[in-house]
Amino acid sequence: MGININTKILLSLASIAVAAALVVGATFAFFSDSETSTGNTFTAGTLDLKVDNTCHYNEPADDTPNCPTPPEGFTTWDSTDLGVAHKFFYFTDVKPGDYGEDTVSLTVENDAWLRMLIDVTADTDNSCTGPETVAEPGCGANDDGELLENLLFTVWLDQGVTPGFQGPQDLSECDNDFVEQFEPTLISEGTVQDGEIWNLADFDEAYLLAEQKACFGIAWRLPEEVGNEVQSDGVEATMEFQVEQYRNNPSPF
């Protein structure tokens, strides 16, 4: 008996299916490789300025600060963020011939540009004593005082005998002592004006180095030749230190 055409077709299809199954079930070995990178991260850096201060009054600057302190406040402190309790200057009985010096230390965790802004918030006569009215005819308690225009300030980079800041290996840096032949003067002696800006970059485009304490000396004095016109006069000011990142920032502030 012969096999009809339909049966032949079915047998052929069955053979193809068996062959395909054998192919699918077979194991093939091709060269391969895989590389994986995990934990890819972006974290923003930080720029948090810390400030400390050592204040000296009417004596050579040394390791023993002696400035008067405000009630519930400080004129000398360790590195920290500044608040209302921190006063660089707090003198309530200044007389001609008085002088003082503050060594201000600044630290940031990334390279940064630095500037300081002075905002004079009060400059008044306060009252008019008898001697003051003689020296200043027409003195009025609500008038501008004369103390601000007679206080003299000098600012220098307290870097010691070696240029830059080396840390503990240079004992002469941050020592409160102005050695003019080694330590650059940033602000020559003169009076302070309201709105004045002291910019560190003005000195050879200097900036703060990451994790490296930078020290600045701020000296003041009321010359002996100043007379009764400053009696009872008062000055108050805000000092604000500002920093901006150094990297990718050629034109700060």
UniProtKB/TrEMBL annotation:
Alphabetical list of InterPro entries matching this protein: Peptidase_M73_camelysin, Signal_pept_SipW-depend-type
Keywords: Signal
Protein known as: SipW-cognate class signal peptide
Signal sequence extent: 1-29
Organism: Candidatus Curtissbacteria bacterium RIFCSPLOWO2_01_FULL_42_26
A Pfam family reported for this protein in Swiss-Prot or TrEMBL: Peptidase_M73
